[in-house]
UniProtKB/TrEMBL annotation:
Species: Letharia lupina
Cofactor requirement: Mg(2+)
Family according to the record: In the C-terminal section; belongs to the Thz kinase family. In the N-terminal section; belongs to the thiamine-phosphate synthase family.
GO biological process per UniProt: thiamine biosynthetic process; thiamine diphosphate biosynthetic process
Protein name in UniProt: Thiamine phosphate synthase/TenI domain-containing protein
Length: 517
């Protein structure tokens, strides 16, 4: 029969997750709330106890016409009359399980990489459990974390095989991120059939309500994370909306949470204040959960890389991902050292970034195509033509299903479908410390107030920032980088104030063109 894998529940009987609740009661409530498949997973109980609980769960799932699978134990599955089993990479091999259970059994297999997925699919697995997607408190083997990019690579490979196989993602999934995971991990010809959740239901105070919420979210996966992107195609339409967005930022004064290096914290705070945002410099990840609930945005600036720093970044990224708060990633110096390149991979696999901002070398490193070691945090001379740069940002944005900004003398901005070149700014920006970091602060603030079109939000921030730089550089009292910085802050403030009075004269200086790539 056709199996609905959309909301796949994996049980957890540990005290940390289940607590003192009765597992069978939790499962029944979850099934009533919309769970479509149940996997009974218990790695510690004796076989007799597994069979007793398995029979209780089988009675519940059979009543609701929901498949019951047993994790690993083929004998237990037979004893309770389950519909099949789920096998990990270290469990019984797929062929043996098929011979024991017969052709009608549902047999799923965990796949953490391309090789495992191809082998299981070729062997006739009923479905694949792909992951771990995100880190979880109980996951000890962090090397198995593949992120949505890893899921997408597996789905893309499966789409080329001459067979159809269902897939679910697992690992750190909950109501706040299931839509994003299903959206971002979708390959051109194949998407996920569902998500597998554990603590999001088992640990919930109301498992039925938790399941119903997840089922609703899964049924409403967006076509685009920028719902208004379709109506915002030409440059004139985009520009016409920017004054209103700048004004809205001043009214809402969103929190801009910066995790950045000490060198630029003061400058970033001043820039945020001048544009109308509310800055906080907080590098301790444990604070992020409270801050993420305030409706602002997070900037992760990889200026200083340490093990503790990465841990704090990951905690903050997860906190903002869980509530749907925008996260901007600035992979500073990503291509300079092996440590930084590995740090990029670690951060990319531990959460979703709404926007990735960097120079050409940093963006190519994130994409995985950089062949030249970066010297410090500076870009150096580029050998790539305009068309290739536009293609580069479009490629990364399409892969990550987000917005990508490549900064330089000309900036390139793309959401994987629309790509624009922006030719504003001033040479003095390249002669002061932190100009790229504070551009990230500015863009993040705009992402917090305008979520209908993330590319438009980013464009508003870029133009406000770079046109203010042009205005400052043209002032008679500016003689060089030293006098430029205070003048630049003044001009940011003046643009913000003029926007509050519906004055958009400053935007006439916008120099932007759409690329067809």
């Amino acid at each position: 029969m056709a199996i609905d894998y959309s909301l796949y529940l994996v049980t957890d009987s540990t005290q940390a997750i289940l607590g003192d609740k009765d597992l069978a009661s939790v499962v029944e409530a979850a099934v009533e709330g919309g769970v479509t498949v149940v996997q009974y997973r218990d790695k510690k109980s004796e076989t007799a106890d597994l069979i007793r609980m398995g029979k209780r769960l089988r009675a519940i799932t059979k009543k609701h016409n929901v498949p019951l699978l047993i994790n690993d134990h083929v004998g237990v599955a037979q004893a309770v009359g389950a519909d099949g089993v789920h096998l990990g990479q270290e469990d019984m091999d797929l062929g043996t399980a098929q011979r024991i259970l017969g052709p009608d059994a549902i047999i799923g297999v965990t796949a953490n990489n391309l090789s495992e997925a191809v082998v299981a699919a070729s062997g006739g697995a009923s479905y694949l459990g792909i992951g771990t997607v995100y880190a979880t408190p109980t996951k000890e083997n962090t090397k198995s974390i593949i992120g949505t990019a890893g899921v997408k690579r597996i789905l893309d490979r499966l789409s080329t095989m001459d067979m159809a196989i269902s897939t679910v993602a697992i690992g750190g999934l909950n109501d706040s991120n299931v839509q994003r995971v299903m959206f971002q991990s979708k390959a051109p010809s194949k998407g996920l059939d569902g998500v597998a959740v554990v603590s999001a239901i088992i640990a919930a105070q109301d498992p039925k309500a938790a399941a119903a919420g997840l089922r609703s979210s899964i049924g409403k996966v967006p076509v685009s994370m920028s719902p208004n992107a379709g109506e915002n195609q030409n440059v004139e339409t985009l520009l016409s909306q920017i004054p209103r967005i700048v004004k809205e930022l001043g009214v809402k004064s969103p929190l801009c949470h910066n995790m950045t290096n000490l060198v630029v914290q003061n400058f970033a705070a001043n820039v945020a204040l001048c544009i109308g945002a509310s800055p906080i410099m907080a590098n301790y990840g444990e604070e992020a959960k409270d801050l993420a609930g305030l409706g602002g945005a997070l900037v992760v600036n990889m200026g200083t890389v340490t093990p503790d720093g990465l841990t704090n970044y990951i905690s903050a990224i997860r906190a903002y991902n869980e509530v749907g708060g925008p996260v901007l990633f600035d992979p500073v110096g990503a291509g300079a050292t092996a440590v930084r390149r590995q740090s990029v991979k670690t951060l990319m696999s531990n959460g979703y970034f709404d926007l990735i901002k960097g120079n050409e070398n940093e963006i190519t490193t994130v994409l995985g195509e950089s062949l030249v070691q970066q010297k410090g945090v500076d870009m150096g001379a580029s050998t790539t033509d305009e068309s290739a740069k536009a293609q580069l940002v479009k490629k990364l944005a399409a892969r990550e299903r987000n917005v990508v900004l490549m900064t330089g003398k000309t900036d390139y901005l793309s959401d994987g479908e629309r790509t624009y070149a922006i030719k504003n700014g001033h040479d003095y920006l390249g002669n002061i410390t932190g100009s790229g970091c504070t551009l990230g602060t500015t863009i993040a603030a705009f992402l917090a107030v305008h979520k209908g079109d993330k590319l438009l939000a980013a464009l508003a921030g870029i133009l406000m920032y770079e046109i203010a730089a042009e205005q400052a550089g043209e002032r008679e009292d500016v003689k060089g980088p030293g006098t430029f910085v205070p003048a630049f802050l003044d001009q940011l403030y003046r643009i913000a104030q003029s926007a509050s009075k519906d004055d958009s004269e400053w935007l006439r200086a916008a120099n932007i063109e759409k690329f067809s790539v």
